[in-house]
Amino acid sequence: MNKNHKTAKIICTACLWFMVIVCTVPFIWMISASFKREADVFAVPFRLIPDYLNLQNYREVWFGKYSYSLMFLNSAKVTLLSVVFAVTTSILAGYGFSKLKFPGRDKIFLLYLATMMIPHQLLMVPKLLMFKEIGIYNTHWALILPAAFSIYGVFMVRQYMLQIPEELSEAARIDGAGDLRICFQIIAPLCKPALVTLVILFFTWSWNDYDNALIFINNKDLYTINLGLVNFMDETGLKYSLIMAASVISILPIFAIFLAAQKYYIGGLTAGGVKG
């Protein structure tokens, strides 16, 4: 049995390493191509580390005529505001559904969860008409406001808060604390793994949001980095060295935030499965 177990473990490990390599190779090629001259991108034999590191690609992308730096800043603005609003609303709603007692609380929560079954694409046209009516179409608020409310975020925070003993809230109320103070000063700090996980997820979703930006934004000065990358590909005429440099710039924030908060990520993802 021990021998069979060892063999199975080796096979699983080898399969996992194979999958890691398959998933990593495109990123390695992208980074390598971003430092090459255009003539060297598809040169044979392939060189992972080019003889000449062409930093001009990054200078041309960032400081050139393509306004890529402006699109990067637009994405940063939209993403940061979306994350702040989404985390705040998730904390407030999660606290309400887990620590406050009111008639029909659990039924309302189940009804709220049921809206996750509605396909995202089905709401595009109603949102477009509504945004035009209220005057936020073709502004960054058309991207920020829908992202400010997350059903998944509320669900995760609620599940995590259910694990926190009620005695903490009751003791704070006896000392005269209100619900907002209890929520943000006592309960929310104890949910740090779940909140950091939500920050990573919300940041990734908002930063990579292409569909909403494509439909709700048509002013080039308001383009986010996803629209900018597609526009950049059209304007450069498929110069792969420049496109790869632009792609590397676009994924750097996601890598940075994940590396900075990865120690909380697994704990946060598994938090919702402990108590329902």
Entry summary:
Keywords: Cell membrane, Membrane, Transmembrane, Transmembrane helix, Transport. This protein is mainly alpha-helical.
Short descriptors:
MetI-like fold, 276 residues, 0% strand, mainly alpha, 71% helix, disordered C terminus, single chain, 13 helices
How does the overall form come out from the CA principal axes?
A: globular
Poorly predicted ranges (pLDDT <50, ≥5 residues)?
Answer: 272-276
Question: What is the CATH superfamily of the largest domain?
Answer: MetI-like
- CATH class descriptor of the largest domain: Mainly Alpha
Helix content: over 70%
Question: What series of H and E elements makes up the topology?
Answer: HHHHHHHHHHHHH
CATH architecture annotation of the largest domain: Orthogonal Bundle
Total number of β-strand segments? 0
CATH fold assignment of the largest domain: MetI-like fold
Largest sheet, strands/sense/barrel: none
Q: Please tell me the overall pLDDT.
A: 85
User: How many distinct helices?
Assistant: 13
As a whole number of angstroms, the C-alpha radius of gyration is 23 Å
* Class inferred from helices and paired strands: mainly alpha
